[in-house]
Design goal:
The complex is a heterodimer of chains A (about 325) and B (about 130). Chain A has about 325 residues and is an alpha/beta fold. Helices cover about 45% and strands about 15% of the residues of chain A. With about 130 residues, chain B is mainly beta. Chain B has a five-stranded antiparallel beta sheet with strand order 1-2-9-6-7. A four-stranded antiparallel beta sheet of chain B has the order 5-4-10-11, with no helix packed on it. The longest helix of chain B is centred in the middle third of the chain and has 4 residues. The chains are: A alpha/beta (about 325), B mainly beta (about 130). Chains A and B meet through helix 1 and helix 3 of A and strand 3 of B.
Chain lengths: ~325, ~130
Amino acid sequence: MTAPAHRIKRGVSLYSFQDEYFLRTLSLEDCIRESAAFGARGIEIIPEQSIPGFPRLTDEFVEDWFGWMEKYGTTPVATDLFLDTKLYADRWLTLDEQIASVHRDIDIAVRLGARIIRAIINTPPEVMEGAAPYAEEKDVRLLLEVHAPFHYGHPWILEHLEVMHRTQSPALGLMPDMGTFVKRFPRVVSDRAVRDGADPKLVDYIVKTYDDHGDTHALMDIMNYRHGGPVEVGLARQATHYIWTDPRSMLEHMPLIGHIQAKFYEMTDQGVEYSIPYDEIVPVLVEGGFDGYLSSEYEGNRHIQDAFPVDSVEQVRRQHALFARLLGEEI
Amino acid sequence: MYDQYIVCEEGFRAREDGVTGGIVEVRMPYYRGLGLSMVEAVDLTLDGRPVPPSRTTFTVHGNTYTFDQLRTTFDDRWEMGERAQLAFETDEPLAPGEHDVAVSVRLRISYMPVPGGGRDRKRLTLAA
């Protein structure tokens, strides 16, 4: 298969290996090595997940980090920040404290050699605006994740776009999460609900409503009317948190898009993602001239860990085989 | 997520500090580490009886806190996957053998409109 010329690169968010990292069956170095083995050269890290002692990074850690990058031929691409607005039990962080938190995470990204920072979806537009000058000074980009259930026409995203267009700050932009393109309900999620005791008929109702791209707003209420319990209501809530929008909705925002979180739930034995049509998404990124990283974000682990062995490495490997094919790489 | 990993199978033991009671090792049901001020509760129910938080302490990487102290601890974290020691006090020494251990963790996650956390329950055998 040949793909048009493009400059899209492949990467992995180490979020993908969270189950193995949690259980200490993969170390941080193992995660990097495994990624490099299937040609994912760009590494995205969640410092709060993978670096004990956060926010203090020791010189020894930073030395190890760059040592691994050299050893495995990888590049630090992105870090993911969180914004703990509820750090205190009795009050919210002030605007200045929120900006200071982002500044701290900019310093961490710089120390790790990453030029891109994922700003979590709850980051307010005024915090992005307030932190932009420091990001510019440090030559990093602060990219707001566009995460389901948000989309490019949502008021929260429009507020962010207003800041980005008004300030014209080169440091601000977007990081689409491919969880905004969930075309059919992830079966790993509905299967789990059944294992957790949900009524299969109610599960089918939720899945069918979602897959028909029907109105999911009242699904939690309907589960209640149909005598569903916490598991059915929880699944219904999930259905309101996945969304399907046309991937072409990214095109008009391409100048702002600097990184892709390639969320996925299940790479099947046939080598496709069960819910997210990457064969529709990747051509849009090529058409739009995207030149950053497609960064794997496997999130199926938590849905199968109760009943099946989790093999996040195999799942990410399959996703990269798919990407290589869609990007026209020789493999 | 990760609920099934909260209560560690290993490390359930009687206390050796002169206090009557035991220690159960617990992990946080979350995909990143979290500052201790946002760990709102790690509630233990032992053999069906709730143990009041005032009778428990929480230890991460050698640092021990009461749950009152956790609220205002801003310079320490419960790391992802880290086995914390939840030490508890009981009136009577723990009987040898199996115990029913249930732990409920409540976390204050800033991007979530509802409390985070999870719960787990396992039968653990007291280490000899």
